[in-house]
Write a structure and sequence with these properties.
The structure is a homodimer. Chain A is α+β, with helices and mostly antiparallel strands and about 250 residues long. Chain A is built from eight helices and eleven strands. Chain A binds a DNA duplex (30 and 30 nucleotides) through helix 7.
Amino acid sequence: MTQDKVISFSSIKIDCKSCNLTTLCLPLGLESAEIGRLEEIIKRSRPLHRGDQLFHAEQGFHSLYVIKTGSVKTFLPEPDGGEQVLGFHLPGEVIGMDGIESERYHCSAKVLETSAVCEVPFDRLEALTHDIPSLQHQLYRLMSKEIGQETDMLALLGSKSAEERLAAFVLGLSERFKRRGFSATDFHLSMSRHDIGSYLGLAVETISRLFSRFQEEGLLKVERKHLQLTNLAGLQAMAKGCGLEPRRQKHGG
Amino acid sequence: MTQDKVISFSSIKIDCKSCNLTTLCLPLGLESAEIGRLEEIIKRSRPLHRGDQLFHAEQGFHSLYVIKTGSVKTFLPEPDGGEQVLGFHLPGEVIGMDGIESERYHCSAKVLETSAVCEVPFDRLEALTHDIPSLQHQLYRLMSKEIGQETDMLALLGSKSAEERLAAFVLGLSERFKRRGFSATDFHLSMSRHDIGSYLGLAVETISRLFSRFQEEGLLKVERKHLQLTNLAGLQAMAKGCGLEPRRQKHGG
DNA sequence: CGTACTATTGAGCGCTCTCAAAACCAGTGG
DNA sequence: CCACTGGTTTTGAGAGCGCTCAATAGTACG
């Protein structure tokens, strides 16, 4: 029960010990009575499995979802049945905030591996943020952070080469795993090469070729879904476009 | 004074008659006393001119800014002095929300033409949203909308060809001018070709060439900064990638 | 052990890039 | 008024990155 409290509390707070997520946010400083109220509105879900869909684009919006364990991808469905991947989400992260404006989800969300996810009905959360100013502030911060992250992604897609994008991608994952207390150099890719390609605006084949090249260059080792980063500094240099030989173009040249 | 009230009210409401912006949002339904309180916190600014900077990336965050007239671009400064353009902002739009999370602006904002901009200190706005639930809801919606728009841009950059991007861009501008009560087919581009290219992830030369080609194809007429859309349906088809001849790639192949 | 899906690798091409230069425009000062 | 200067836009030529197509290998599942 105490354990449950911690989980519920931290699900919103995004500062969740049970999710190994201790540094993302400032403490909320809620009173225990307030924690209880927050707990009340959170629906715990049974385990979800690979391919399960949390919500669909255009579907009526009611709740935010907090990833507790596992991973989730968000994407924009395309008319031809394809998926434009928008992001990969790890424990402690919140999705669904794009649905508030129109009261319909803007994107779809699909579970990448067996995962646990909390549902937080937004109308009740909104009412609670009205009663608890620090929670209100936290929600503003959360949405602001989302905007900033998408902004960074726009810059990546707008001006980086394929190798810069992939290097930045694996380093981003590394950083996020590290914050969660997992290894920063050794982790599992729950998404397919296809999803990575879609996310980075590249073809599947390009992802595969780059992984092979990075491995040849000793930057990392990749075996199917397992990734081991063997030269973080080299990857960082590559992500910044400061590769050994000066290159300065996205593609073409 | 009544006129001023309308402006202040609508600056936050994003439903501003004086900005020709009547359809963007639902009414807030504020009491006149509440309107007064909102008015109090808004700082009106003197006119700004082309090149004036509203805020810089990494600078301490204190306020949101609402464009009243003119236009503003937001961008991420690059180490080499370049600018990765993130968006162009028209009257009624709010910028600076990316600064809430870290209490530093995430991007920079520069005025594109003579403009009027309201400053809204965020701490005071936040306090006010606590007192006025409908205002709180409106701010959530505003941030949610921003997330959705950036999402759409990610999809554009991730999977569209150059011609699809430019067609979508001019149509997006057209739509936004239309909502503001201006002509949807005849308007002024306050940003340079360079800015458009950066925004769309394309080279300046590509923008210029595409404008020329679109003109040859009778889709639009362009003369320096003046744009006239002569075939909206054709542009829409092009933006969707349903051009006359089937094409299905971003670049290459 | 067959079927379907995912990943890898190769061959070839074209979209969009870079480089380069000319045309055009705006502002300044003589 | 015009030459000068700096910036923006246009246009051309050529090249390369990342694409598509295609085929092979590896993996998952029944």
